[in-house]
Amino acid sequence: MHQIDPYFRWNEYYSSENDIHSPFYGKEYNYELYSETIYGYYIDPSWDYMGSETLYIKILYSHHEKKFTIIELIGEWNDALNNDVMHLKRNIIDHLIKKGVKYFILIGENVLNFHGSDDCYYEEWFEELEDGMEDAPGWIAAVNFRDFIIDEWGQFNIDNFIHSGGSLQINDWRTFNPIQFYNHVDGLIQRRISLY
After folding, report:
1. What does the pLDDT look like over 3-52, one tens digit per residue?
2. CA dihedral in degrees (75, 123, 120, 143; nearest 10)?
3. How far apart are CA 31 and CA 170, in angstroms?
């Protein structure tokens, strides 16, 4: 796992530690020291701790005028034991929503497993984006999560709140710059919404 680092080619556009709206504003990284682990395996120092022992994140890009953020994840998403969605919601998402973000892209190709519990935090997140926005409602898109994780989400009704699968399996997402990527995902979500 120590060889899996967050996508770095967008660093020229954005760094969460330099963004005054980011929950990681002011964080200093020591790229020589591997100190964080998931199940005893060291992970790259670029990943950010958000309260969970098994799920780490990296905010790859946030655009506050366009109100979107792109978050990459690594590890095991475990709501059953660690209530990972609570940590993500309370420590990261709530902060970003207060700063005006309402479109969330989660990149999950490095999420290796999922254990569900209930859908309360997902529903809360969804409702805040649906009801709490002054203009158009927001959305949550899950890109490149493994099929079995998306299937597990369905068993816990999480798919009622997060767009995933199908056209959101975007294997070439790294070929976009962050604004192009957001525009692409937004177009896919708008098409889905128009079919409801």
Report:
1. 799 999 999 999 999 999 999 999 999 989 999 999 999 999 999 999 99
2. -10
3. 29
Q: What are phi and psi of 193, to 5 degrees?
A: -60, -40
Q: Residue 147 has which token pair? A: 């099929």
Nearest C-alpha neighbor of 196 from the set 139, 118, 122? 139
C-alpha separations of 8 from 11, 12, 17, 137, 169 in Å? 5, 8, 14, 30, 20
> What mean pLDDT is predicted for residues 88-117?
97
Q: What is the pTM of this model?
A: 0.96
Strands 68-78 vs 55-63: parallel, antiparallel or unpaired: antiparallel
Length of the chain: 196
| The one-letter amino acid at 142 | A
